[in-house]
Structures are given as structure tokens and as C-alpha cells.
Amino acid sequence: MLALMSGDDGRVMTDAVDGLAITGATGSDGEPWTVSGPPDAPAIVFIHGTRLNRRQWVPQVRRLATRYRCISIDLPGHGTRAAETFTIEAAVTSVVAAIDAGVPSRRAVVVGLSLGGYVAIEVAAAHPDRVAGLMLAGCSTEPVGPAAVGIRMLASILERTPPRFLDMTNRWYFQARYRRATIQPLLEGGFAIRGGAQALRSLVGRQYLDRLSRLWTPVLVVNGALDPMFGPGGEPWAAACRRGRHAVLRRAMHLSNLDRPGPFAALVAGFVDETERDRRAA
User: Fold this and answer.
1) Cα angle value 246/247/253 (rounded, 5°)
2) Which residue in 78, 81, 133, 165 is deepest, having the highest Cβ count within 10 Å?
3) Which residues lie below 8 Å from residue 180, measured CB to CB, with a gap of 6+?
4) CA gap 11, 268 in Å, rounded
5) Are 261 and 8 in contact (CB under 8 A)?
């Protein structure tokens, strides 16, 4: 297990990177993804969490896009695709389409947090040729049994509570917890209440650990040290992978990429570089 100790000033790139397409509503061709960075650089695809949007990853893209090809996507039912219905199948298709459109080699390290981590596993299982590595944050619990009860309860809250109230509550929480520079792009992308509920219900009953254990893809499991639901499962999940490691971000909760933007970006960069070295040595 790795324990990352550096502070938020231990970043890979500066916060202000001029000329990067990191805040546009859609990709250059109107697609629901944003592409930044050199076309011939190692590629990273970022997948957001439930009810969020691709702008969740702006803090990492700002730090990484001068060295890596960065693609952040909106899943069905979220962000620019809020009017669509979320299904696992549609989510997988979206990720593969973004890789094929934005990465000349059609192969990328896939980074997902929470819902995005589960979708990343689905992509690797269905399309292993597209995935150079998996970085899975805040998803090291099977959505079955007691965990499924909690997921269903959260989905019910999203379905039964007035969307306007939920939007106001979400905005208050994020504004109270995070610096404006960290979360303003995310707030501009909006919260997907209906799509978030659909995504949660789509996860219930699906099992991921067995599929992870069969993959030869390098896997880095990441948990916030203060994440009570997913943190305890991180080490066993990494151990179950054929090529797995575990990293813990201190002073981070579930949304670890927002809690510790710089250290999270450093983990991404280190994992991508390691994956590239292994590929060249093979």
C-alpha cells in the first residue's frame, strides 16, 4: 500500500495553463467530451462520479495536459447529456467512442472515481484492447448486499426529493467545502439528479471484483483515508488484481480528486509513466 504524503502544493503542473480546452461545454466536434494535450502523448481518459460531470476533472487536467493527452467525458444522463438515459452499456460505448476519437493509438489509461471507476472496469472487461491501465478511485466495494441497500436508498432520495432543492443543497455543500478555483467548473456543468439515480440503480447487483481479478491490465486502486464506505476495501481489491497496487490519499474523503487535487494528479502521472515504462520494456 502506498500512502501519499505530499501537500497540495506538490502538483505536477501549475493551476493556470493557457490555451487548454478544459472548460468548453463540448468537444471540438460537438461531442460530449473535452480533449486536451499533445496527440502523441500517453493518453488518459477521466470518468466522473454519480450526478457530476466531466468538469470534475479540471483540477487534474490543468496539471497534466501539457505532458499527456487528457480526455474527460460526460456519461449518459450527466452534464451535456443530462436528457439521455443512463445505462451501463451506453456508458461503456461513450468511453470507447471518446478513446477512438481522441487518441490516435486508440488506447488509454482510464481513470474513474466512484461511478466512473465501476464504468472503467466495465470498459476494461469488454474492450481490453482500449485500456492500457485502470486507476480506480472510491469504488472498492461491490454494489451488492448491505452496500446495495445504501445505494438504493441514495437513489430513492434523488428520485423523491425536489430537484431544485437537491441542486441548491449540492451547490451549498461544494461551495462550503472546496475552494472556488477547484469546484467552479464543476458547478457550471450542473448536477444530474435524474441521471444520478439511474446510474445508481444500474450498479446494484453487478459484481466487479471477479472481473478485475481476471484482467492483465495494470490497476491502481485509490482511496481517501477518510472514506468510510470504500476505503476499507482498497487493499483487498488491489490484492485480488493480477497487477494491482493500492494508494491512500491522506486527508481525503470520497471525492479524493477534489479533496487533494495536486496529490491525485501526481498519482495519475506516476501511474501513467509506470504503465508506459512497462509497455516499452515488454
Assistant:
1) 120
2) 78
3) none
4) 11
5) yes
Contacts of 65 (CB under 8 A, 6+ apart): 13, 17, 20, 22, 36, 37
pTM of the model as a whole: 0.90
Grid cell of 281 as nine digits: 520494456
196: left (phi over 0), alpha (psi -120 to 50) or beta: alpha
Distance between CA 15 and CA 63 in Å, rounded? 6
In order, the DSSP letters of 238-269 are HHHSTTEEEEEETT--SSHHHHSHHHHHHHHH
- Point out which residues pair with 36 in neighbouring strands: 70
Q: pLDDT tens digits for 152-192?
A: 999 999 999 999 999 999 999 999 999 999 999 999 999 99
How many residues can be counted in the chain?
A: 282
Which residues are bridge partners to 72 per DSSP? 34, 46
